[in-house]
TrEMBL record:
UniProt organism field: Ureibacillus endophyticus
Protein's recorded name: Erythromycin esterase family protein
InterPro entries, sorted: Emycin_Estase, Hydrolase/PRTase-associated, UCP036794_erythomycin
Any Pfam family hit: Erythro_esteras
UniProt record, GO biological process: response to antibiotic
Leader sequence residues: none
Amino acid sequence: MPRKLITAIKEHAHPLNDHGLDKIIAAIGNAKIVMIGEASHGTSEFYSIRAELSKRLINEKNFNIIAVEGDWPSAQAANRYVKGYGNGNTTARNVLINSFDRWPTWMWANEEVEQFTEWLKQKNASLDKKVGFYGIDLYSLFESIDEVLNFLSKNPQYKVDLEHAKKAFTCFEPYNRMPEHYALSTSHFSDECINEVSSLLTSLRKNEERYSDQHEEDLNLIMNALVAKNAEAYYREMMKDAISWNTRDRHMVEAINELLKYHGEDAKIIIWEHNTHIGDASETSMKEDGMINVGQLIREQYGKENTFAVGFGTFYGTVIAADRWGDPYKVIDVPPSKLRTWEGQLHAASKEDKILIFNEENRDLFNDWIGHRAIGVVYDPEFEVYGNYVPSRVGSRYDAFIYIEHTNALHPLIE
């Protein structure tokens, strides 16, 4: 297998340059959903190249939504900034530092995202239909509850939904804004309490035409209620790894669908998430554990012809991560990949940065099962051989792959 795969890589690789990105843009064709991954949450090149590819999709193919693996309330601050809503005297740096303050802060409060955010604000100044920047994750349970209650409280004409919201969110009051406390206590909840959150969302959807679309207030209300409903389910299931993973990814797909619906038939969305979310789980060992992900569900719902997934990888370098969940971040060395891994094969083919485009003519050449590295926000390189390589059929997991031989750690804004 190694020699055959190395030969296929040599024959089908394109240089990672403007011409290579041209190949990806051409391969995307008329797809309205482009999912751009990352092999870690702490690698500078993954963020900067993803941003450059996104700029081209905005400029050349009129994509108008960026959806990221971040919390809705935090990303809404960035969305308001790039669209010119609210305070015009602030900067992208201040917005990112002040809004993305939940660990791991470096994922979005970093120099790479700061540069893209400033570019997007300038770009939007020239557009009638401005490009949005939205968070589709669900960790912001209490922040989203606050957003819903604050909005409804300031708008007394929506009294019915306000009373409904107060009743629904009473369930969460005893847990001192600590989702883990809620998760440990959900076994004592009645179905009635759990159903209140779902029925609130149903009520808001039923009445959504009443809400103002100024500065996307209507979208913000619905999305925060959606987060509250699905975050409740996620924290209730968080002790069951596969189930809670699936709940989270289903939520992100539901959020993507809401964004596309809100922005109309011409909406085109770019999704920024880790490879483990955007690379089709049915083409990995994840399926053996009953796990699905965004990439798989989006392909199933919209069809492969309307979607395009781009993966990332590196041979070695440095990365921002932590020793344990919640610990301070640090720069960690990423060791060279072993030969019999996807990254090791890319390195063996050549030490050059490269792009591979997978299509019906060549996918089978890249579909032997092989380990593909994934680094999270918690990382110990000494154990990565045992836990950081996901067996994958790479040619079918993605539609394109960007490989950087040597990568560097992300540049956080917050020390």
